[in-house]
Specification:
It contains 14 helices and no strands. By secondary structure, the chain is an all-alpha fold. Helix 7 packs antiparallel against helix 8 (161-174) and helix 11 (213-225) packs antiparallel against helix 12 (229-242). It is elongated and about 80 Å long.
């Protein structure tokens, strides 16, 4: 068996898309439009956005400070300044009105994802616990489930696998349409030696998002560990074909090389050969 198949996929860095929250609905105002423009600038020119948002923050009062703080957080993520991003998102959450718990939950979640990307799992868990509390206050089960997925990543990083499994169970219950919950459940089950559970979870993940290269990669790992080499090849080859430039495709190529080509079937003996004494 190929030892390299045992991958810590649960410790994936957060993608920039996790931070793409639009203007919080604090109150209908021109500030929302200003935030939208600032976020657009943060994506294209983060350094300039930091200057603009800092000036804005110096002028804003009370709950309106959440807007420039969020823009700062977005800009810092683009520059991979994860601690600064975390602080900005937490500042935005603190400034946002308590009457907007869904927004506060998303901002705390972005802070937690910033810490996750920085490998600071204890800080990430603290932020995500805040997000979970806010999501519960908002009575938003889907959001609560999404937060539990990120909590599971932090818990795995802290070697607290049993708690991560519990968080993922909550995620599957509250956000069953999120393929990440099923993917990470499969990865954790596989790492714990529960290949039957891993196969069940990865089938659900693939049904929800069949073109996701991370799901195809994990499906191949699970198949290989179960001794289904042909199924593993098929999964990894699909990753290479559907997302050839992705990091997952490169890993899939490495796995295919380690696994080697499929064995040629043994030819059936011919009638003449069978009759030869």
């Amino acid at each position: 068996m190929i030892a390299a198949f045992i991958l810590p996929l649960l410790a994936q860095a957060a993608s920039a898309d996790m931070f793409d929250l639009r203007a919080p609905d604090l109150s209908p105002s021109l500030e929302e439009d200003r935030l939208t423009l600032c976020l657009d600038q943060a994506r294209g020119d983060p350094s300039t956005a930091i200057v603009s948002a800092s000036v804005w923050l110096g002028q804003a009062l009370d709950a309106e400070r959440a807007y420039p703080q969020q823009c700062l957080g977005m800009a810092y993520t683009r520059l991979l300044r994860w601690k600064a991003a975390e602080d900005a998102f937490l500042g935005a959450r603190g400034d946002a009105l308590e009457s907007t718990p869904s927004i506060r939950a998303r901002l705390a979640s972005m802070a937690g994802n910033s810490a996750l990307a920085d490998g600071r799992y204890a800080d990430a868990l603290a932020d995500l616990d805040l997000a979970a509390q806010d999501a519960a206050t908002a009575l938003d089960k889907g959001l609560a489930g999404d937060v539990q997925i990120d909590r599971a990543r932090a818990l795995v990083g802290l070697d607290r696998a049993a708690e991560a499994a519990s968080a993922l169970a909550d995620a599957r219950r509250d956000a069953p349409q999120n393929p990440d919950g099923w993917l990470l459940s499969a990865t954790l089950s596989r790492r714990q030696g529960d290949l039957e559970g891993a196969q069940s979870y990865i089938r659900t993940a693939a049904g929800l998002d069949p073109a996701n290269p991370a799901i195809g990669l994990e499906a191949g790992v699970i198949a290989a560990l179960a001794g289904a080499d042909d199924a593993a090849r098929k999964s990894w080859q699909s990753v290479v074909e559907t997302a050839p430039d992705s990091p997952e495709a490169q890993t899939a190529r490495d796995y295919l090389a380690q696994l080697g080509p499929a064995s040629s079937p043994t030819p059936e003996p011919t009638e003449a050969a069978s009759a030869t004494p």
